[in-house]
Amino acid sequence: MGIPRTAAIEYPYGRPVGQVGDREGQRKVLREALSVFEKAKKPGEVYHLPFTWPEEPKKTDWQPPEMSPLIKYYLEDIKKARQQAS
Amino acid sequence: MEQKKIVDGFRFLPPGLRAWVKTFIPDSDFQGYIPWKPLEKPLNQIMLALVTSAGISLKTDPPFDMEREKREPLWGDRSFRKIPRGTTEKEIDVNHLHINTNWIKQDINVILPFQRMAEFENEGIIGRLAPTAYSFYGFQWQNMDFLKEAIEPISIGMKEEGVEAVLLTPA
Question: Per the CB < 8 Å rule, is B116 touching A27?
Fold first, then answer.
């Protein structure tokens, strides 16, 4: 898939702008993301935003309460992929 | 384009899911055609629209269809919803089987930042925030019909409002 311009951020899925109630943090992320409109000069450029989420991935609670239908459907493939990767 | 931090898009995935997703995401950059139009005016003169794939709907509209996806795991709702600017978390439903939707229900700005953009409009950082934002459902599994059924009408709506730039926040 091709994307005209990307502001990449290392935040948990579902909260790309920032933490709940964190007005200042959200503003900083959005200012940086908007700056990509003016910086990007050709299609497909990716700008990596310099922010770090304050919690370890396991503590971010981004996953749905129930395993998604897709994951259930492909569970055996996922287990195999994990074994092959380790 | 020197950049200090390189974002790890897999950081938040558990190991099994990370390994599996990597099996079908190519290592190389996309080589096909990418639609492109440079920003023709400074940001403080453009009308910006927000779009999210978070499955947000107004409580007064039908929710995205999760029940069919539970029966057909490779199917994702292809419809879209209009969300007027200024909408708050009290006025929305969020349906998405692949993320925890509770955070968005607590603060819509974590993915559809209406309040922050209204501030930027007042401060002259952007020209205008478009009257209408759009939400669709991010789980579209190898599905091109979605372009015709959702993206095309969304783009027509944006043209009618005079939108000049779009910020898409994915989920």
Answer: yes
pLDDT tens for B90-103 read 999 999 999 999 99
Interfacial B residues in 62-81 facing A (CB < 8 Å) = 69-70, 72-74
Contact criterion met (CB < 8 Å) for B15 and A86? yes
A26 assigned to some structural domain: yes
- Tell me if A79 is assigned to some domain: no
Helices and strands: H and E segment counts in chain A: 3, 2
pLDDT tens digits, one per residue of B32-73: 999 999 999 999 999 999 999 999 999 999 999 999 999 999
Structure tokens at A65: 């309460």
Please state, in angstroms and rounded to a whole number, the distance separating the CA atoms of residues A49 and A7: 6
Domain positions in chain B: 49-169
A54–chain B nearest CA distance, Å: 13
**Which range of residues forms the domain containing residue A19?**
5-61
